[in-house]
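Hello,

Following up on my earlier ticket. Below are the two sequence lines again, exactly as submitted.
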Amino acid sequence: MIAVQVILEFLTTIFIFPGFLFTLVASLLNQWYVRKVVAKMQNRVGPRFAGPFGILQPFYDFYKLMRKEEITPNYGNARLFGLFMGIGIGSNIAILMFFPISPFRFHGPFDIVVFAYLGLWTTIAIALASLIFPNIFSSIGVSRLISLMLVYEPTWILSVLTPSAIVSKYSSIPFSILETITNFSVILSNPLYLVLTAISFITAVASLQCRLGLQPFDIFEADTEIIAGAFTEFSGNKMALSTLLHDIETFTGATLLVFIFLGGPFPFFLNTAEGVLLIILKFLAVIFLLTVIRASSARYRLDQAIGFFKYPLLLALAALIVASIV
Amino acid sequence: MDLTSTLFQTLVASGVMFIISIAIMLIVSFPGVKSDQPAGDKNEPYLGGEKQPFSEESIDSNNLFLSIVNQSLRKVYVNIIDRLNTYSMGEWMFGMSLWLTFLIVFLLTVVVIL
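Thanks for your patience. The regenerated structure is below:
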């Protein structure tokens, strides 16, 4: 009986909350917010007609793309594509299982290793899904994506490690994501810890921007230069799924910044209305920051982007070393 | 419920990815999802207005993934095929039993180590 209950709890977590259904709705709502902010910055109106203030437009777009005619090259494999997109989406949903919002969660010493392992899968899934369809622009896009991954992924992991290293000094469970989130008050107890976490937050934002392929790091997509790069052969439901993966990755990345660097519901608690409201406000602020950078930047070349990343990478490394020593 | 072992967490996380990927693969394969399929000459690739056979331009993506296994384990594969495809049911059953025994021993070893 207990085993059945555990299995049901597990399946509910991965398919409903905070699993696929919740993530789908939240990430599409997030897409609407991003589109409205970008439209405002570019003196446009943005989504308007589907639902109040056009809030249902991303849902309609997703439905439309899923039903739309698609063209699969003869030597491509749509099922394999679905498998890789599923791996990308699944890895993001598994990342959400590190946060206290999840009823079935990962919590143990050094679970940050599992977190890093899951984070890699999204990029690998996009690269493999693109390589299924033989196309020169896809190949160029994927080679750029892999080149960027070599700089943004270490920066991302080092950034997340810094607050975790600080909290680990005062916790019985070292390098745990959940411990880092629940003991956020430790970071506020010392001004140096606060400065180190702020530096890590900046480097994490830079690497998240690159990870999501947002300007100025939209190098592996680079429309007007290499058609759509890694996404060139995606049409119909493939396009819908790749867009959904991008939205879910945005949602997961911003949620991670909110919980690890901004304390989640702190100073309130997660099970209170104030706590939930504060999480939503912090989340919208993070998305606003990412969107403003995106809407006000021009694309870097690949060598410029890799050259740029030596600064966040070294900063994140320095912050982690100081956090470990002090 | 909190999961404690890092190895166990990795396995569960991979399981979550696998379950969701299978679900999405089924959604993509489900015929009802696609309303209109391209018909006739839309499947034909064109380059500069001329018909361009894909076989001349690209490699089969199935080969891309399977060739690693085929090439690296070719000797083992050929050996197994030679031993099992003798049209004798007894030899086939022996081979399958051997494989099943190996799997069970492997799984038991993993469980005991964990």
